[in-house]
Structure formats: structure tokens, C-alpha cells
Design brief:
It is a single chain. The longest helix has 19 residues. This protein starts with a helix and ends in a 12-residue tail after the last helix. It has 186 residues and is mainly α. Helix 1 packs antiparallel against helix 2, helix 2 packs across helix 3 and helix 3 packs across helix 8. 57% of the residues lie in helices and 6% in strands. A 3-stranded mixed sheet has the order 1-3-2.
């Protein structure tokens, strides 16, 4: 799986944001297929997203979001702050499994993201000097920064890989994933 996460990170580093986004959007497909090859694509995609990305992108509460994005900060909160953070998360800032799957389908199969003008999110390139605008609203749309999203997907893939490490069947399938052969090794 490292070949895919390395490719995503290299694409971000090189400013190849289409490649970074497209491979990032494909990773729940790839991981889901390794885990449950007989399941329907959309079902396994959504299930994988729910397990590995939901807490960061579609949390049920502010506490769940903080726990997923800054776990060290939660331990420093007083009990009354933790109680207040149990409030439901603002859904206008959510990017759900269905949103991600729809985005994946539009981007990978049609090369479009916005067609009807009704999409609730937009991807942006990294800001100068490392500033982050990820998961903010702009003109009623959720702003997702490609580099941050791509890194979140890479971290989710690494978490997933750690969770399935002892599964011999999935490991065998993983060994069947595509690789490239150097021309001089033909």
C-alpha cells in the first residue's frame, strides 16, 4: 500500500493535484476491494470511509471531531468542556461517505466535480506559506484543501493496513495489486 500513499504524497509535493486527488479518491475502493471483493463497490467504499475517515469528515459531535484530529487536546479539556463538545457537529461542515463516493464517481469517471451547481463542496489547492483553509465554508460550499484531504486519506490507509496486518487472505490479495516493471527488467 505504501506505493499508493507514496504516489499521493509525491503528487502533492510536485503540485500534481489531479493525480493526488484521483488516487486519494480511489483508495477506499482499493482497500475496500481487498477486504470485501464480493461486496458492491459503493457499499464497500462507504463502509471503508465510515471506518477510517468519518470521524474527521462527518463526525457526530465536536468531541468526536477533536478526538480524530487532535487527540492530545482532548486530554487537556476540563469535564465541562467535554460535556459541551458532545453537541452535534454542524452538518454544513460534513463531507460524508456518500459525498466522497459521489465525488469519486464524478471525478474518476467523468472528469467533473461540479455540473449542476448544487454540489456542496469544492477542492482547492494548498495555500501559500502552509496556511490551511480546509473544512471551512465559502459561498455556502465546504472547502476541502487537496493536500490536507490527500494526507488524511494516506493516514487512513496506513491505519487500515495496521488493522488488517494479520489477515493472511487480505495480505495475499494485497500482493496481487499492480506494480510497474522497469523497462530494463523485461
Amino acid at each position: 500500500m505504501e506505493r499508493f500513499t507514496s504516489a499521493i504524497r509525491k503528487a502533492v509535493q510536485d503540485g500534481n493535484f489531479f493525480a493526488a486527488l484521483f488516487v486519494s479518491l480511489a483508495m477506499p475502493d482499493i482497500c475496500g476491494a481487498l477486504e470485501a471483493p464480493q461486496s458492491r463497490v459503493g457499499d464497500r467504499y462507504n463502509a471503508w470511509f465510515q471506518r477510517y475517515l468519518r470521524a474527521k469528515y462527518d463526525p457526530t459531535s465536536h468531541l468526536e471531531f477533536l478526538s480524530a484530529t487532535m487527540p492530545h487536546a482532548v486530554s487537556m479539556l476540563p469535564p465541562e468542556a467535554i460535556a459541551e463538545m458532545q453537541a452535534p457537529f454542524d452538518k454544513t461542515l460534513s463531507f460524508s461517505a456518500d459525498d466522497c463516493y459521489t465525488c469519486r464517481c464524478k471525478c474518476l469517471h467523468q472528469g467533473i466535480l461540479e455540473k449542476s451547481g448544487k454540489e456542496k463542496f469544492v477542492f482547492i489547492t494548498p495555500l501559500p506559506n502552509g496556511a490551511i483553509l480546509h473544512r471551512n465554508l465559502r459561498n455556502g460550499k465546504l472547502v476541502l484543501q487537496i493536500d490536507v484531504f490527500a494526507e488524511d486519506v494516506c493516514l487512513a490507509v496506513e491505519d487500515w493496513q495496521n488493522s488488517i496486518r494479520s489477515d493472511a487472505v487480505i495480505s495475499a490479495r494485497m500482493n496481487e495489486l499492480m506494480t510497474f516493471t522497469e523497462w530494463f527488467n523485461l
